[in-house]
From TrEMBL:
Swiss-Prot/TrEMBL keywords: Mitochondrion, NAD, Oxidoreductase
3-hydroxyacyl-CoA dehydrogenase NAD binding domain boundaries: 13-78
Start and end residues of each 3-hydroxyacyl-CoA dehydrogenase C-terminal domain: 87-148
Taxonomic lineage from the root: Eukaryota, Choanoflagellata, Craspedida, Salpingoecidae, Salpingoeca
Keyword NAD among UniProt keywords: yes
Protein name: 3-hydroxyacyl-CoA dehydrogenase NAD binding domain-containing protein
Record has NAD as a keyword: yes
Record Pfam families: 3HCDH, 3HCDH_N
GO biological process, one term: fatty acid beta-oxidation
SUPFAM superfamilies to which the protein is assigned, alphabetical: 6-phosphogluconate dehydrogenase C-terminal domain-like, NAD(P)-binding Rossmann-fold domains
Catalytic reaction equation(s): a (3S)-3-hydroxyacyl-CoA + NAD(+) = a 3-oxoacyl-CoA + NADH + H(+)
GO cellular component, one term: mitochondrial matrix
Organism: Salpingoeca rosetta (strain ATCC 50818 / BSB-021)
Amino acid sequence: MHRATRCLAAVQHVTVLGAGLMGGGIAQVAAATSHKVCLVDVSSDVLDAGLKRIENSLSRVARKKFRDNEEEANEYVAATMVRTAACHGHPMGPFQLLDYVGLDTTSFITHGWARDYPDVELFQPVKSIDEKVERGEMGAKSGKGYYEHK
């Protein structure tokens, strides 16, 4: 098995921040490839519109994929939508957002900024994030960051 395929096979749950066009597309592809998806947006209206857009898009895909079998097309849409959960309208605070982005990702970014802008205090690495990363606490993807994740 190719290395990238092995990495993707290990991913089972995907959280997508933002239910707009891009976020909805990412959520649709993840759900269609059998991943459990949590689609998050601070606006319930945007979240609902994103889910409707995904359902409409899946219906178009299903009509092409199952031209001769409307029942299979409907089952495909239903099964994919079941894997897509709407994580309704709770704005995230900064630490919860860090957990969803990934503390390792945040650490990588801040170290890059610190290297590129060594005289800007705002861009210096955050010690508590680096310590959590060293302990393997990467946020939602590892089950623990600033919060416990199941």
